[in-house]
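Question (not urgent): is this output format expected?
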Amino acid sequence: MKFKLLFFALLAGSIPVFAQRTARPATRTTVTVYTTADSTDFRLSPTGTLQFKPFGQPFENQACIFVDPDHTFQTFVGIGGAFTDAAAETFAKLPPARQQEFLTAYFNPDKGIGYTFGRTNINSCDFSSDMYTYVQDGDKNLSTFNIAHDEKFKIPLIKKAMAETKGQMKLFASPWSPPAWMKDNNNMLQGGKLLPEYYDSWAQYYVNFIQAYEARGIPVWGISVQNEPMAKQTWESCMYTAEEEANFIKNHLGPLLSRAKMSDKKLIAWDHNRDLLYQRASAVLSDPMVAKYVWGIGFHWYEIWNGGRQYENVKRVAEAYPRTNLLLTEACNYPFSWETFNQWQWGEQYGENMIHDFNNGAVAWTDWNILLDETGGPNHVNNFCFAPVHAKTQAGTLHFMNSYYYIGHFSKFIRPGAKRIVSSSNRAQLLTTAFINKDGKIAVVVMNETSEKIPYRLYLGGQAVETVSLPHSIVTLVL
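Got this back:
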C-alpha cells in the first residue's frame, strides 16, 4: 500500500522530484580549462588541457570537485542582459566598428560569450533619458498606442543582437509603471497603484506591446507582470501586494493573453528580490486559477541591502513548486565610479550569485543594462550603476569589466537546453556548478574567492584530473 501511495503521489506532483537519473556518457579523457584570474592577463583564456587518470578514494586533506552526470536537474534556458533605452542610446553613439565589436562580444557564441536571453522595458524606466508611454493621456481604449519612441534606438539594437545570435535569443519585457493617469498617485514615479478601473486597459497594453514588437520582426518570448512590485522608487514604479498581483493575473492579464492566442508567452510573476520570494511565489501559485497562467517566478539580487544574500529562498520555492521555473531577472553593481571600475569584487559578486542560483534551481539569469556610458547612464533620475561593458562615447571606446568575463564563464559554455548535473565541492573555498549540454559536453564552473592558491582534483567517477585554482579566479572546465 505504501508503494501505491508513493506512486500516485508522484504522479500527482505532491512530492517534489528534483533529480533524474540518466545513463552515464562515454568515458572522457581530456579536460580543457578556461581561466579568468585577478593579477593575471587571463580573461576567459584557454590555460591548459588536462588528462584524466585513475584515482582511488580521495584523502581528507585533498581538495576535490566531484562531478556526477548520472543525475540531472533543471533545463537551462539562457543567460543575458537588458536592452534598456540607456544601453541602446549609448550603442548608437559608438562608431560602426565599435558597435560590431560590442555585438560580437556579447552575442556571438564563438567569438564572444554567447548571450541568448534578453529583457527590455515597457514604457520608460530609470535607465531612460526621459519618461514616456506609448499612449496619449486618458486613452483608456489605447487607440493611440504607438511604439515610435522605441524605433529610434531600442528596436534597432535588439534586432542587431538577435541577428548576431542567428535568431536564438529569447526576449522578455517588463513594465516599470503604467501611464500616470492609470494610477492612484497620478505619477509614473514614487510607487502608487494601478486603479481597478484600468486593470483591463493595462492588460491590453501588454498585448499591444507584443503585437507591435512582433510586427517589427522581434519575437517576444515572455513578459513579467511588474518590475519590483513592492518598491516605492524615485523612478518609475508601481506597487502590487501578492493578492493584487494574483488578482490581476487571474482575472485580467492571464485570460486576455489566452483570448489573444498568446498563451505561449511566458508569464513571469514577482520580478523582485529574493527576500520575499517565497511569500510571493506561494501566494501566486497556491491558487490553481492563477498558477495555470504563470510560467515562472522572477527574482533580483538586491536583498543584500537588507542584510545579505538569501540564496536559500530560491531553493525553498523550487522544493515547494518544482513545476514552476525560477529565473533571476535583474542584477547590477552600484554606485558607479571609474575609480572602482577595476575592483575584482564586481565580477566575484556575479560568479557567486550565479553558482548559488543555478544550484538552487534557476533556469535562466538576466543581468541589468548590457551597456552604459562613461557616467554609468544615461539615467533620468541619477541612480547610476555599473554594466559589464561601458563606452566612453566621446572617445568611441569600449571598456570591459571583469564581470563581463565572469558571466561569460557560464554563458559561453552552458548552452540552452543543457541540464544541470551534480558538482560537489569538499571545500567551502571552492564554489562550483555544472551542466551537461545537448551535445554531451560537460561544463564545470569552479570559483575561488580567496587569496590562496588551491590545488584540487576534479573527479568524474573513479578518474580525475589535477589542477590549481588561482587566487580570486573563476574557471570553466570543459569535459
